[in-house]
Amino acid sequence: MRKRVRAGVPSKKTHAVIFGALAVLLLAAVTVYIYSRTFAKSERLGLPMTRDAFTSITGRAVPHLIGMAASGIVIASVSLAFQTVTESRILTPSMIGFDSVFVGTQTLIVFFLGSAAKIFANAYLNYLISAGVMIVVSMLMYGAVLRKNKNNIVFLLMFGLILSGIIRSGASYLQVIMNANDFYQVRAATAVTVNNMNTDIIYLAAPLMLAVSLAMFLRARTYDVMSLGAANAKSLGVRYEREVNFNLIIISLGMSISTALIGSLTFLGLLAVNISREIFKTYKHSTLFFASGAVAALALIAGQAITELLQGAIPLTVVIDLAGCSYMFYLILKENKKV
């Protein structure tokens, strides 16, 4: 007897075709990115592209590709988990204020120790301190807001937004009164640009980000149950409050590690997860984790390739934020119609 497939829901075969298309697009994006860094640039500058030059440039481009792919995967993973925990498709973990804590940490280091200090100049030490501070701050927030197993996610978001504003204001004030050289060093360190990605720590950060993503993927079935709502999840045997607290910790780890590497990409996760939901039309998180990670990685690599071809005329972050804001408005209006 044939299994009936619900109208509008893609079959497993269709899913496989879509994944194949995403793989082809990713390969094409990588090819265009390498072309933009090599032949397109040499033609623009009027310089010959020798074999040694191509090998050298490609060798420098590989860490960027690894960083973009790993960052996209972990940002999409934590965004999917966060939306499941908060039961909302219009929220991202960036709203808790990771980017502000990162900017504040860099500003404090330079303000008190100077841009020549070992803590700031050493890539590994700076990265570990920045990620560590973000993790500690987020843990303190969870302890203060979600104590006694109260699943008050809305209050946590409000607290995060307020704290983010305070930290940004303080960081802006310190940046104004510091000397010009230190100011430019801080701005360069906190700017969200793929070209300025700290490639020295790629091979440390990438495995950590992939480990966080894998930890979430292995809990895909738990997320499937949690997506039914707190009451239904509890009735099916899920310790909901404990799962929420555990996931917030994992989300903090993922966001802290990725933000310290590439900066804050607020709307990348929102776009990747919701596009994946629209394309695959499934509740299964095992599929959504793969799909959203692929879409996020594709968006970063393809977007940066286009930016390189346009000689940086349109920064990648501007495109992502513009598309993310527009899509967020669309989702808000869509959800409002259902009420």
What's the structural blueprint in terms of helices and strands?
Layout: H1 12-37, H2 39-45, H3 51-86, H4 98-113, H5 118-121, H6 123-145, H7 153-177, H8 180-190, H9 202-217, H10 220-226, H11 230-235, H12 240-262, H13 268-280, H14 285-309, H15 316-338
Helix pairs in contact: 1-2, 1-14, 3-9, 3-12, 3-13, 3-14, 4-6, 4-7, 4-8, 6-12, 9-12, 13-14
What are the salient characteristics of this protein?
339 residues, mainly alpha, ABC transporter involved in vitamin B12 uptake, BtuC, disordered N terminus
Description:
The chain is an all-alpha fold and 339 residues long. The protein has a single domain, classed as ABC transporter involved in vitamin B12 uptake, BtuC, CATH 1.10.3470.10. It is built from 15 helices and no strands. The longest helix has 36 residues. The chain is globular, with a radius of gyration of 21 Å. It starts with 11 loop residues before the first helix and ends with a helix.
